[in-house]
Amino acid sequence: MIIGSLSGPLCAAGGFCAGTEEVVEHQRISSASYTYSAALPALLSTTASETISMLQEQPEILTGLQDNIRAMRAQLDPRSDWVRCTSSVDNPILLLVLKEEVVEARGWSTKEQNQVLQDVVDEVCAYFLLSPISSHSL
Q1: DSSP state for residue 5 in the 8-state scheme
Q2: Residue pLDDT, tens place only, 75-99
Q3: Which alpha helices (H) appear in 1-138, and where do they start and end?
């Protein structure tokens, strides 16, 4: 079975499932009702279509994204003493976890680990909300 989604990378919704007739039919019948729906809003269909067109016409968008991913990873992993990145090297979403040796050395519970990570999120959000966006390279 081959599946794909339009919701994350294309800022749309929906996806596809391809395989033998029996497998696809089972997936269609057994899935939750929101998984297979004929009610995809036109705006989301248009968004996906326009995104694909933009990427085809301006492939440098993807090159720039890949450059940004590499730059961000170089700043965090492996330079950070506290976190490591667990996401794929090509993934623009960086999944960060506290390094095991830090957690063990400090004796943090899961709740304490979550609080440390939430503090980081809060600081980043405050930084970007309180600072002019134009001064940042997003």
Answers
A1: E
A2: 886 788 988 888 888 888 888 899 9
A3: 21-30, 42-57, 60-76, 100-106, 110-130
Other residues' Cβ atoms within 10 Å of the Cβ of residue 104: 9
Tokens of 29: 């019948």
The answer, as to whether pTM is greater than 0.70, is no
Encode 53-80: b = buried (16+ Cβ within 10 Å), e = exposed: eeeeeeeeeeeeeeeebeeebeeebeee
| The one-letter amino acid at 11 | C
Q: What are phi and psi of 11, to 5 degrees?
A: 55, 40
Dihedral sign (CA 74, 78, 80, 83): positive
**Who contacts 112 (Cβ-Cβ below 8 Å, separation ≥6)?**
106
Q: What is the mean pLDDT of residues 54-62?
A: 93
